[in-house]
Amino acid sequence: MTHPDWRTLTIFEEIFSQQGLLVAGTDEVGRGPLAGPVVAAAVILDPGRPIGDLDDSKRLSPARRLDLFHVIQAEARAIGIGAAGPRTIERVNIYEAARLAMRRAIKNLGVRPEVVLSDAMPLPGAPHHTVPIVRGDSRSASIAAASIIAKVVRDHYMDELHETFPQYGFDQHKGYPTRLHREALREWGPSPAHRTTFLHDEPTA
């Protein structure tokens, strides 16, 4: 698979970096699953330390995602993680929960970016300029890096959740509505990790 090159992926970052502005990228994973949190990451990359093969985390193999996760951790200037759990998702809806997770990730960077590139998500009222980019995880290096970090962190969390609730197979489907997951739900019913409002639209047979 061919991935965008570093120069192509940093066009948006360069626009603002050349103005002396600190740029972060943010993305989230976990809007579609029936269980587990939505997890977001925010990443500030170092323009002088290019990272090859950055791309939308969904286009990367699990092994390559993990490799890049470690590279990003080593090379990025700052990384922040944020999450919103099932009860928060049910209280505010999944879209607002994803936005909340992104805000938490940006706050957890430890430094305040002046510009945030997001994967098509507006962040109104934030103390920074937000640039929503459609398909940003395949068009911006910072957003791609954030998508990789968020995906690996969430997958690891779901693997840990499997240890508590092994009957659902979270280590295999990460909470997404696969046939295995639906069959487990029919047999065991929902766990505390499930988004019960999401289950209302699921087939019962």
SSE inventory with pairings:
Layout: H1 6-9, H2 11-17, E1 23-29, E2 38-44, H3 62-75, E3 78-84, H4 86-92, H5 94-107, E4 115-118, E5 129-132, H6 141-164, H7 170-173, H8 179-188, H9 196-199
Parallel strand pairs: 1-4, 4-5
Antiparallel strand pairs: 1-2, 2-3
Helix pairs in contact: 3-6, 4-5
Description:
It is a single chain. The relative contact order is 0.21. The chain is an alpha/beta fold. The longest helix has 24 residues. It has a five-stranded mixed sheet. Helices cover 43% and strands 14% of the residues. Strand 1 and strand 2 form a beta hairpin. Helix 3 packs across helix 6 and helix 4 packs across helix 5.
Q: State the helical fraction.
A: 40-55%
Query: Which fold name fills CATH's third level, the topology?
Result: Nucleotidyltransferase, domain 5
* Name of the CATH first level: Alpha Beta
User: Termini, distance in Å?
Assistant: 38 Å
Query: Architecture in CATH?
Result: 2-Layer Sandwich
Number of domains: 1
> What does the overall shape look like?
globular
Radius of gyration, CA atoms, in whole angstroms: 17 Å
Spatial order of the strands forming the largest sheet: 3-2-1-4-5
What kind of sheet is the major sheet?
5 strands, mixed
Number of continuous helical runs: 9
Number of strands: 5
